[in-house]
């Protein structure tokens, strides 16, 4: 993880906009020059008018007109420069913001399965959105009219005062070290508070997303008020911490007011003394006060933007922490395209565990699966079946051993070329809030409608799709909630059909269908499995009795392998699973309710 300051990292994003940065710098310097010129024109005009009233003579009409024209010219050009600067800055910063957002989202998608299993998607998406927006705010505050332009003006003002009167210049500068010291001390405390605040608001986003994702469950259990109170409690806790930071900022604002007031009074006293001593004119006295006000403007700007800057820098830092996450599974620089499976898939002494010191999730797996073989995986929950499949998908890499396709180690090929050969029909099919057609074609973007319809027919999904109002253009709702479990399952099967994989993974794909549809789907999947290497994670042994090979998993290892008949004879674990599923269910005695009231039928009897 990078230890570089988040501010430095944000400013480093400007490297991609060097030409634009040079133009912006030129614009802001020119605007500052026109801004500073106005007090000098005013000073010259005031001194000329005072001389006229003292000495008499011809009225300085020309001087008045020239001064007015000069002030108008400088003001108009200043506004034009600032407007162009703001517009070009907005364009540049929004492009940087979008680039950061898409890069962070891409990193989120690229991160390993363990990261996704251990984090909340709502929390991470909230972090990305807030972080990208914070990058925009920080850049726009620093480079916009809130920091860099005022600081450039301050530099110009200080240089002008040094030229006109070094004593006044030093007087203007004197309060700044005190202010900076106080801000530096308090800012560190505020930064720590803001980090906690951001964590609390991320937790709030996670909880809100969790409730929104399970809103139907909330309603089923009548927990609307409970969840609302929980959200209010989380928000109140986050706000309490946030208010602590705001109180610290109030100290900074009051310090800023005190410093600028002391500075103004000092300049007035010293400048007035120079006038009384005849060492400065009235016009120069007005110039000192005007330039001093311009010099202290950045103080006011800092009191406005510092709370926002600190808050957003903290958010950006959390975004950078996400972007610094290293994926556990990556393509080698010399990774090659995986050729289509022809001969066999092999596991060679494969060991895998989810973290150092943990027990092996898969251990000592040695297996050769010839192409076009149907392999079923059985075992108790947590026995290693899902991990075995995830290793094949290269969601993880083995800690020891290797997985080979036609003799090629999966770590030597690109992940995209590997997964292009695999289709998965999970037990719970995940759908996007898009049309049915888009969901079916998700694995093959750009697929034409006739191919989508054909895949749906094979999956026995065309019937219910055609009965919807908009057919294949019907939106399925968030996570497919508008569809029944069986309908979502059939769309998942259609998606696999369309992908036309060499390797098929079925996680008990028919488990959510009614009996009639199940038998039809089993015939459809049998056609899909033909000439493909298929792995079935079995929850019901009745669905895999005809598999070419059945693997019995126990505590991460393959306890036994063989056909259904062979395993009934040689595998105690398989025989026990078989007995549990096929033995006669125990009858549960039902005690009739004793009541003196006679029960009445709700339906009238003819």
What labels describe this entry?
606 residues; alpha/beta; ABC transporter transmembrane region fold; Rossmann fold; 3 domains; six-stranded mixed beta sheet; 10 strands; 9% strand; disordered C terminus
Structure description:
- This protein is α/β, with parallel strands linked by helices.
- It has 3 domains: 6-323, ABC transporter transmembrane region fold; 344-421 and 509-582, 3-Layer(aba) Sandwich (Rossmann fold); 430-500, P-loop containing nucleotide triphosphate hydrolases (Rossmann fold, 3-Layer(aba) Sandwich).
- Helix content is 61%, strand content 9%.
- The chain has helices at residues 6-12, 18-55, 61-110, 113-117, 121-143, 148-164, 166-173, 176-213, 215-220, 224-276, 282-323, 385-392, 415-419, 436-440, 449-458, 462-466, 485-499, 515-529, 564-570, 572-582; strands spanning 344-352, 362-370, 374-378, 400-405, 408-409, 422-425, 503-507, 533-537, 549-554, 557-562.
- The protein has a 6-stranded mixed β-sheet with strand order 6-7-8-3-9-10, with helices on both faces.
- The longest helix is centred in the middle third of the chain and has 53 residues, at 224-276.
- Residues 599-606 have low confidence and may be disordered.
């Amino acid at each position: 993880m990078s230890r570089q300051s988040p501010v430095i990292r944000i400013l480093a994003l400007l490297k991609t906009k060097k030409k634009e940065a040079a133009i912006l710098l030129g614009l802001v310097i020119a605007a500052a020059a026109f801004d500073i010129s106005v007090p000098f024109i005013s000073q010259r005009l005031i001194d000329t008018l005072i001389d006229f009233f003292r000495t008499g003579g011809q009225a300085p009409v020309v001087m008045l007109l020239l001064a007015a024209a000069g002030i108008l010219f400088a003001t108009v050009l200043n506004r034009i420069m600032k407007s162009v600067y703001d517009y070009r800055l907005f364009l540049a910063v929004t492009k940087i913001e979008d680039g950061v957002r898409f890069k962070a989202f891409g990193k989120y998608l690229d991160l390993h399965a363990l990261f996704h299993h251990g984090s909340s998607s709502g929390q991470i998406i909230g972090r990305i959105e807030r972080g990208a927006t914070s990058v925009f705010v920080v850049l726009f505050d620093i480079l916009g009219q809130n920091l860099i332009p005022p600081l450039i003006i301050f530099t110009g003002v200080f240089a002008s005062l040094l030229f006109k009167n070094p004593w006044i210049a030093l007087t203007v500068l004197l309060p700044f070290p005190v202010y900076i010291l106080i801000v530096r001390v308090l800012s560190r405390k505020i930064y720590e508070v803001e980090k906690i605040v951001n964590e609390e608001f991320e937790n709030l986003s996670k909880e809100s997303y969790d409730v929104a994702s399970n809103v139907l469950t909330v309603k089923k259990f009548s927990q609307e008020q409970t969840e609302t109170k929980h959200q209010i409690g989380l928000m109140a806790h986050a706000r309490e911490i946030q208010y602590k930071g705001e109180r610290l900022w109030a100290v900074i604002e009051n310090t800023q007011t005190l410093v600028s007031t002391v500075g103004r009074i000092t300049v007035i006293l010293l400048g007035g003394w120079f006038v009384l001593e005849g060492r400065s004119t009235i016009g120069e006295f007005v110039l000192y006060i005007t330039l001093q006000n311009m010099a202290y403007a950045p103080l006011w700007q800092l009191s406005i933007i510092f709370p926002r800057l600190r808050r957003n820098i903290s958010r950006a830092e959390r975004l950078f922490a996400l972007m610094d996450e290293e994926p556990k599974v990556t393509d080698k620089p010399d990774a090659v395209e995986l050729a289509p499976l022809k001969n066999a898939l092999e596991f060679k002494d494969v060991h895998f565990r989810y973290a150092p010191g943990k027990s092996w999730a898969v251990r000592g797996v040695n297996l050769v699966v010839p192409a076009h073989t149907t392999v079923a995986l059985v075992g108790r929950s947590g026995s290693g079946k899902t991990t075995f499949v995830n290793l094949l998908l290269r969601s993880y890499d083995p800690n020891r051993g290797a997985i080979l396709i036609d003799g090629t180690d999966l770590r030597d090929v690109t992940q995209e070329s590997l997964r292009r050969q695999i289709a998965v029909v999970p037990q719970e099919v995940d759908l996007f809030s898009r049309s049915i057609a888009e969901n079916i074609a998700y694995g093959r973007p750009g697929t034409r409608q006739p191919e989508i319809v054909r895949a749906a027919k094979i999956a026995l999904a065309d019937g219910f799709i055609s009965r919807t109002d908009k057919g294949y253009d019907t939106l399925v709702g968030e996570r497919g909630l508008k569809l029944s479990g069986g309908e979502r399952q059939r769309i998942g099967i259609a998606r696999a059909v369309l992908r036309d994989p060499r390797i098929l993974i079925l996680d008990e794909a028919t488990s959510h269908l009614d009996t009639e549809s199940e038998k039809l789907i089993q015939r459809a999947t049998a056609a899909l499995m033909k000439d493909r290497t298929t792995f079935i994670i079995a929850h019901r042994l009745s669905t895999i009795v005809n598999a070419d090979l059945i693997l019995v998993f126990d505590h991460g290892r393959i306890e036994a392998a063989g056909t259904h008949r062979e395993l009934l004879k040689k595998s105690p674990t398989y025989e026990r699973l078989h007995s549990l599923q096929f033995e006669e269910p125990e009858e549960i005695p039902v005690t009739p309710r004793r009541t003196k009231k006679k029960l009445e039928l709700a339906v009238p009897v003819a």
